[in-house]
Amino acid sequence: MISVENYLFIELCDLHDGSNIDGEHHNINGKNKVLRFKYGNICPISIKDSKDSTVIIIGHPSFNGKIDANRFVLDYIKAKEQNMNGFTASIDGEFLIVDFNKLSDEITIINSRFASPVVFYAVVQRRFILSTTYALLFKYLLRNKLAKMLPDKAYELLSFRRLFGTDTYDDKSKYLESASKLSLGSKLKIEQYWVPDIYSNNSSLNDNAHTLVELLKNSIMYKTSDNKRYGIMQSGGLDTRMILSGFDNTPHAFNITYEKNREYKIAKKLVDYKNGDFSWIQVKNGQYSDFFDYGTQVTGGMFQNSSLFYGHRDIIKESSDVLFSGYGLDYFFQGMYLPSKMYSILGESVPWYKTLGKFNKEMVSYFIENISYQTKGFELDDIMNSGQISRKNDLIYSSIKDQFLEAKKYSDDIYDIYEHMSLGNLSRHYTYTGQLSLMELSEYRTISYTNSILDFYYNLPLKHRFDAKVLRKALYISDKRFFKLASANHGFSAGSSSFEKSIKHIYKYLPERIGLKEKKRNFERTWLTAEEVLRSELLDRINNLTKSESLHNLNIVDMDKLKKVVGMWNDKKIVGNQTLMMLLTVDSFFKQSI
Question: Is residue 588 assigned to a domain?
């Protein structure tokens, strides 16, 4: 089995206690405690050990917009010793800081306001355990009989392709929320050192677009300040082209597709505009089946598997040391998690066009029924008995209500609240699965993850976020060629509004709809649908679900009903899609962990 390569695992316990960490690891002795830790081969780690303390840094924190781990640690220690007010909130970027005081045996954990890298921790039987990979922590706790499973948490995954809140699949560990400072001495203390200040600025769309362009350029300067070889996962969509447009020194571009289709051609054209180097990586047969179990370990079984990115480490490292992508721009500046209203004419859906939706019921129920990333496929209730359905509904309502109450702390605006319910902890967001997979290829940095960009997002008027207005305008300002070039998502200009895309789509495809032209479609995107992957690569896994011991023991689905539904799917009477994919994810994770 392929092993996770990007992780940090920590165990803090009494000096006389034996180690429960598998394999070789580091030992740091305190007064009465010992800090033991190990990390993966591609974990971006820096360690500063002194007489009084050990500071471990993951990622690239900065006080001055430059990446220099040694300089940062010295500045961090100085600020801490001088007890400088608010210095923690001024740390920029994606990071995790572990600070072990050898004199007092106190450990302090500080994560970024993006909650990336993701962190899970547990305090049990005088031990503190931390891991950036949940699968390792879960196995540790179960193997040492320190925790019990909480399988009902999987109902969130099955329903939304992600988890909410701080709970995990066991009763001892927790997810560390964004901008947290965790301290453990005589007792555990967690405080938020930063909270979002949500309000709408009064700037024009044009001014906000110019600001976004400038902020992205500043981030690029920051995240390329250590003179490494840089690469970017380049698609033909809107987000990565916005990132690419901001580079003066073009990173090496990588494009992953099944064939040299529209996605490939547009991505290559964008890189050609910048006179950059371009590598095409063709998806292999069996990509999903080969890397499925590995992917569920990387993601801790908490997201839909993103197997497409795995297995390309050797190709990447030939040309780059650090990878970038477009993650973040979509959910910050496209308004993707605001309610929207779609339209139809004579019963036919109007493609692409949407307006801002209105809430027609109380917020929690509206979210559960309408959030865009809810799992697509057959109804979960079809594979559950009445008791399981009741447990699922109660857990989900309670969890989403907690999201709602938390979001209400930061705004009175109902749309801001609704959006924050999805984006409050970014490493819980369902798209974080892609970032986790990229972290297994190389050191990875997210251009959109700087404090100034996040602050700007929280101060941006809703009307500028919805329908990607500010992002499209920023792209026009940054590079008009990129704005005009077609998007691989739909084949029309990347700068097109939803209304413009709708009109162009109707004009282009109306002859097919009324029978004047034969319908012909080529596969033009990076991703196959979940249904296509299930039938082409994961068919045996689906059929094995009906006799899965792990699913049976978890008692979250009715195995007899599941067998019936799988039979109907095999007969092509129903679509399994993401629902079956999430069941495979649950099965894969627990069967490897128990």
Answer: no
Quick one: 73 and 178 in the same domain?
A: yes
DSSP 468-515: GHHHHHHHHHH-HHHHHSBPTTTSSBTT--HHHHHHHHHHHHHHHHTT
Q: Is omega for the bond preceding 117 within 30 degrees of 0, making it cis?
A: yes
pLDDT beyond 60 at 521: no
Same domain for 300 and 437, yes or no, is yes
The answer on 178 and 58 residing in a single domain is yes
Q: pLDDT grade, residue 343 (50/70/90)?
A: confident
326 and 216, same structural domain?
A: yes
d(CA 352, CA 368): 23
pLDDT at 511 over 80: no
84 and 123 share one domain: yes
Query: Which residues 6+ apart lie within 8 Å of 92 measured at CB?
Result: 61, 62, 63, 65, 222, 450, 451, 452
Residue 177 lies in a domain: yes
Q: Do residues 72 and 48 lie in contact, with contact meaning Cβ atoms separated by under 8 Å? A: no
Diameter of the chain by CA atoms?
Answer: 82
- Residues 546/562, Cβ–Cβ less than 8 Å: yes
Which DSSP state fits 21?
-
- Boundary-marking domain end, from 481, 513, 545: 513
pLDDT of residue 348: 66
CATH number at residue 127: 3.60.20.10
H or E segment and range at residue 351: strand 348-356
Which residues make beta-bridge pairs with 192?
A: 180
229 and 180 within one domain = no
For 492, phi and psi rounded to 5 degrees? -105, 170
**Spatial contact of 209 and 473, defined as CB atoms under 8 Å apart:** yes
Q: Indicate whether 519 pLDDT > 60.
A: no
Query: CA-to-CA distance for 11 and 35, rounded, in angstroms?
Result: 6
Helix or strand or coil: residue 442? coil
- Which of the listed residues 171, 192, 213 is the one where a domain comes to its end? 192
Number of domains composing the chain: 2
Residue 104 has pLDDT above 60, yes or no: yes
Kindly state the tokens that stand for 67: 């990446």
| Helices of type H across 110-204 | 134-143, 154-160
Residue 493 lies in a domain: yes
- Give the angle subtended at the CA of 487 by the CAs of 481 and 488, to the nearest 5°: 135
For 449, phi and psi rounded to 5 degrees? Answer: -95, 75
**For the chain, what's the residue count?**
594
Percent of all residues in the chain with a pLDDT value above 90, rounded to a whole number: 87
Question: What does the pLDDT read at residue 263?
Answer: 95
What pLDDT score was predicted for residue 20? 85
Give the structural domain span for 295: 205-334+427-513
CB-CB contact of 295 with 310 (8 Å): yes
- Four-residue CA torsion sign, 120, 121, 122, 127: positive
Give this prediction's pTM. 0.95
Examine the domain organization and report whether 492 and 453 are in the same domain. yes
Q: Are residues 325 and 210 in the same domain?
A: yes
pLDDT of residue 591: 96
CATH number of the domain to which 315 belongs: 3.40.50.620
Residue 378 is assigned to a structural domain of this protein: no
CA–CA dist 69, 65 (Å, integer): 12
Q: What is the pLDDT of residues 121-139, one digit of tens each?
A: 999 999 999 999 999 999 9
- Mean pLDDT over 259-268 rounds to 96
Using CA atoms, how far apart are residues 577 and 593, in angstroms rounded to an integer? 25
- Residue 275's pLDDT is 98
